[in-house]
Amino acid sequence: MKVKEVAKLAGVSVRTLHHYDEIGLLIPDQLTESGYRVYSEQNLEQLQQILFFRELGFPLKKIKEIVTSPDFDRLEALKLHEEMLVEKKKHIDTLLQTVAKTIQHARGEVHMSHKETFQGFDFSSNPYEQEARERWGDQAVDESNAKVAKMKKNGQMEKFQEDMNGLYARLAELRHTDPASEDAQAAIGEWYRMLSQMGSYSAEAFKGLGQMYVADERFTKNIDNFGEGLAVFMRDAMAIYADQLPK
Questions:
Q1: pLDDT digits over 213-232, tens only?
Q2: Entry pTM
Q3: What is the CATH architecture assignment of 123-243?
Q4: Strand, helix or coil for residue 202
C-alpha cells in the first residue's frame, strides 16, 4: 500500500507517516524508483503497535526503543495493550459516572459527598514516567516508585489519594487569587510536602514540575478538571514557592 492509502486506513496524516520514516520508527519495506513509499503487511502490523502505544501516552522515543528491540514480542505487546486499555476503560467509566452524578447533583436531584465528587481522579500514579526519567534520572523515579509501593502495601494509598484530591479542590478555590498570597503559598506548601512523601524534590525539580503542568497538555487537562486555569495557577505558585526553598 502507498502512503496515502495507509494514512487513510489508519486515520493518521501522510505527514505523520513521513515523520515516522524519518526518525526510523516505521520504515516502508519498499521505495519505488519514483521515490514512493510502499508499505507491506508487516509495516501495517508495526504501525498498529505504534498507534496502540501512542494511544496509551508513550512518547515516540520510547516506542522506537520498544518496537525495534530484538526481544520485542508482538503477541506479548498486544496482551499488554489489552490490559492497559481495560484499565483505562475502567477509569473512564468511573469518571463518566462521576460526571453523570454531578449533573444530577447540580440539578438538586441527588446529594454527593465530597468523596463521590472526586471519584475517578487519580494523581497518585505517574503516567508520564518516561518523561520524568529523562528529566530527573532513574534514581529519583525509582525511589518515588518504591515509596508509592510501600504506601500501597501499608494500606495508606487510599487516604493519601483522598487528601490529594481534597488539596486539588482547595487549590481550585484559590486559583483566581494572587499565587504569591499567603493562602496560596500555604496551600502550595502542603502540595510540596505531599509530593515529598513520594519522592525527593529539589527546588529546581518542583519548579520544573509546575512548568510541565502547563507545557504538557495531558497534565493541564487532568488538573483543570478541578477548575479551569488551575494548572497555570499551580505553575506560578510553585515557581514562587520554589524560589524560597534552600538551593
A1: 888 787 888 888 889 999 99
A2: 0.46
A3: Orthogonal Bundle (1.10)
A4: coil
